[in-house]
Amino acid sequence: MSTKSPRWARYTRAAVEAPTPHPTPPTPVIGRLHRWLKYHAHSIRTRLAAVEQLDEVVRHRPDIRLLPAVVATWSAAAIAITQPERRVVAAAAGLSAIMAAAGLWWRFRRRRKAATASGSTLILAAACVLALLVAVALQLHVAAASPIAAAAAQGEDLALTLEVTSMPRSMDSGHGPPQVAFDAVVLQATAHGRLLTGRMNIMVFAKQEWGGVQPGDSAVTAGKISPASSGEKAAGVLRPSTEPMEVSAQGDSSQKVVTAIRTSWVAVVHDVWGTRSLDAAGLLPGMVMGDRSGMDTSLDDSMKTVGLTHLTAVSGANCTLVLASLMLALRTARAPRAVAVAASMLGLAGFVMVVGPDPSVLRAAVMGTIGAMAILGGRPKRIGALLSVAILVLLLNDPWLARDYAFILSVLATLGLHLVGQRCVKWLSALMPLWLAQAVAIPLAAQLFCSPVIVLLQARLTVYTIPANMVVAPVIALVTTVGTIGLVMAAIAPPLAILCAGVSGVGAWWVSAVARFMSGLPAASLPWPEGVQGMLLMALLNAAVLLALVAVVERQRASAAAGRVLAYLPARWRRGCGFGAIVVVAGTASMWWTAALVKL
């Protein structure tokens, strides 16, 4: 029998006991935030799955058939250019004998099919190395046989007639007035009344009065030629004791046209931007034709701090944009493919002549042609073979490129874009919009491959290099294409050149603004260990970045690869290969970095 509780008891229980919880509807703000997080989490998961499926379907293996020849030729060049002529000749003779013996053995060998591929690769590599040794030996012999080189080796005072072969570039001496440096060839010299003929490559470090000479100019001066360092292409170093005298431009009319085009473009740029932005006025000629003579020193330092100095040199990217723009314009006008290719190559040759056919520009043209062929051809598997052929041709033409940092960085940047450029786009597109992934992937891929070598030149960690390159990337094509049109029109259609300078100058102003802003941010440039240990630490850091991207985006493949690696370890070690192992590796790298900095 149940009895009703008194009314006062029900009131007491209601006051003391906790009420029964009821689901309360979320506020509008919390609801929207919940839906946003749920949607983007699902979007990221969907993108990750799509990236893994796409990478399984579209996978291009790099063409490495010419890799042994490239490695052998590059290694032989790096060693041969530091050796005397007799050793290089002896090495060439020995390799010739070995190749002859191997050829006889190959001819009488009956079981050819099993070794055809590897044998052809070895023969090609040996032939490239032999050709390189012959080229080095010939150049060393010509340099040693010059009467001018013999007089310079004796330390005699010489009256010299020089031919300038590269644009003078400003250099901060650090303990005196600024100087300029350029390459030149000694055409003739006079010592104690004796006329000496021949050719001798030299490097010239001179006062600012020499900054006005142009490639192809000849000038008369005097001084002593000191020996150059081992491995340098220049046979000597000259510090002129006089100003340039009897300067005469090259008699070729094409060079006069080129000089007129360059000076007209610089004048137009300064007329348009000289009173509006000195940074844009000084930077635009550098971004279009590599002329950095008008750049402010502080702007140059800011661009070094954030890793944008490559924009002021004619690089493969400039040549790629020029060639691709011409090709696309001609194909849009329904020109036949053969005509479009021929006209585009002629246009690129004209661009190279205008900006100055320096060795660095010629290398950039070769690399840019490879990039344009990769973009327009739609056959990424051929990029590896094209890059290998380009490296072999350039090394055989100039073996001293093997120790040239500009060439090494150009090759590494192209290699990075070829190997991980598209993969970085796929990985990053799972975490951000496609347009942003493409903007980040290009500088990221190039920086990951180039930064270990960059720290050998500048032992600093430039934290904002990738963000700075990403922010300025949208205007680079504008500055290059429109600026090149203005460069061509400066001497024949000044009004059109003024318009082009105004449009492309906006992009140059943006680059300078980004450089100055980001160089002033905290920790823009951090100390980094010098030498080989700095290079190894940077390589480890870059490898960690790539592995992190793979682990986040391609989780299944990363897990499978980790499982295959752990399978080779003893069972008791596998249990420790988790978060603790990552902490140990990171701690070891941090202590290595700290110890290296303490030594500095």
Q: How is this structure best described in words?
A:
With 600 residues, the protein is α+β, with helices and mostly antiparallel strands. Helices cover 64% and strands 10% of the residues. The protein is built from 21 helices and ten strands. The protein has helices at 7-16, 28-57, 67-80, 85-108, 116-145, 147-153, 253-273, 278-289, 297-305, 316-332, 337-355, 359-377, 383-397, 405-429, 434-457, 465-489, 494-519, 531-553, 555-566, 571-574, 579-599, and strands at 158-164, 169-171, 179-191, 194-206, 218-223, 225-227, 236-238, 245-248, 460-462, 525-527. Strands 1, 2, 3, 4, 5, 6, 7 and 8 form an eight-stranded mixed beta sheet that branches. The termini are far apart.
Output the keywords.
single chain, 600 residues, alpha+beta, 8-stranded mixed beta sheet, two-stranded antiparallel ribbon, 10 strands
